[in-house]
Amino acid sequence: MNTRKHRGILPAAVIQQRCTADREYNLTRSETLIRQAAEEGARLVVLQELHATPYFCQSEDTAVFDLAEPIPGPTSERLASLAKALSLVIVGSIFERRMAGVYHNTAVVLEADGSLAGRYRKMHIPDDPGVYEKFYFTPGDAGANNGQDAFRPVDTSVGRLGVLVCWDQWYPEAARLMALAGAEMLIYPTAIGWEPADDEDEKARQLDAWITVQRGHAIANNLPVLAPNRVGHEAAPEGAGQGIDFWGNSFVCGPQGEWLVRGSQENEEVLLAEIDTDRCDSIRRIWPYLRDRRVDAYGDLIQRVRD
C-alpha cells in the first residue's frame, strides 16, 4: 500500500562524508549533516553505505565483527530519534549482527515519527582484492517465500522507497524488481572509489560506468535515483594494499536520467534535490516500457548461463 500523504515536490537530500576509525565522530558528523539537510527543507535524507565506520572490507579480520550491532540497536535508535526530532525520513546503513555468525550489510529506513519503517539487507555481495565483503556479509534472504520477499520497497510517508545497496546498483534485475513491486524511487547507499594506482583514464572510465548504469536504471524504470557515496582516502590495514580513494560524485537524477544534483569528487556535502513525485506517472504514459515487456520470453533470466 502507498502511504504517501502528499504528492508533488519532495525535497530529498543525499549526504556524502568522510569516515574515520572513530564511530562516534562519524555518527556525530552524519547527524550534523542530517540537521543541515533538514534546515534546508529536506523531508527525506539518505546516508552513504556503512557511514558509521571506515570501509573495513579492505582486509579479512575477525575482530571487525565486534563492530556489528543488532537492529534495533544503538545506531538505528540514534537515527530514529533524529528522524522524529526533525520530522523527516532517514535511510541509514548498518553492519547488522543478526545472530552469532550471521551478519548483514543493511539499510534501515526510519519513519518521520521515529519508527522503523523497514530494512533491506544487501543482496549482491562482491569479493575482490580490497573488497572482501563475502567474508563479512551474508546476502539478504532472497530465498524466503520462494523469492517473493526479495527486492520489496519500503512504505513511508514520503513514498515507496526502493532501497538497494552499492554492488546491487550494477544489476538491472534488482532495479526492475523494485519497480515492479511499486517503488517510487531507487536508492543506492554506496561506498565506491579508485585504487590509488589507477591511471586517470581508468578512473574516468570507472566513474562514468558507475554513473551511467544507475542513470540507465532511472530511464529503464521511469524512476528517480538517489545515490550517496563516501569521499576521502581510507588507508588499508598494514600489508593489505594502498587503500581506496572514494570518489564522491553523489547524485540524484530524475526518471529520464536527467541531473537534479551532483556532488564533488572530494568534499563532504549535503546535496538537496526537488523530486517531482508526479513525473514518473506522466513519463510512463509516453515511454511505456513496463507495458511492452515480453514476460513470456524472459524465462531464461533465472538461469546462471544460457546454454
Order of helices and strands: EHEHEEEEEHEEHEEHEEEEEEH
From the alpha-carbon coordinates, what is the Rg to the nearest angstrom?
Answer: 18 Å
3D shape: globular
Task: Kindly identify the CATH topology.
Answer: Nitrilase/N-carbamoyl-D-aminoacid amidohydrolase
Assembly state: single chain
Helix content: 10-25%
Tell me the total number of β-strands.
Answer: 17
- Taking pLDDT < 50 over at least 5 consecutive residues as the criterion, the unreliable ranges are none
Classified by CATH, the class is Alpha Beta
> How many individual domains?
1
How do the strands line up in the largest sheet?
5-4-3-2-1-17
Mean pLDDT: 94
Question: Which CATH architecture?
Answer: 4-Layer Sandwich
* Biggest beta sheet summary: 6 strands, mixed
The structure class reads alpha+beta
Instruction: Report, as a whole number of angstroms, the end-to-end distance.
Output: 40 Å
Count up the helices: 6
Describe this structure in words.
There is one protein chain. The chain has a 6-stranded mixed β-sheet with strand order 5-4-3-2-1-17. The protein has helices spanning 23-39, 74-86, 133-136, 172-180, 200-221, 279-286; strands spanning 9-16, 44-46, 89-99, 102-110, 116-121, 127-128, 131-132, 154-156, 159-163, 185-187, 193-194, 225-227, 231-234, 244-247, 251-253, 259-262, 269-276. The chain has a single domain (9-302), classed as 4-Layer Sandwich (Nitrilase/N-carbamoyl-D-aminoacid amidohydrolase), CATH 3.60.110. The chain is 24% helix and 26% strand. The chain contains 6 helices and 17 strands. Helix 1 (23-39) links the parallel strand 1 (9-16) and strand 2. With 307 residues, the chain is α+β, with helices and mostly antiparallel strands.
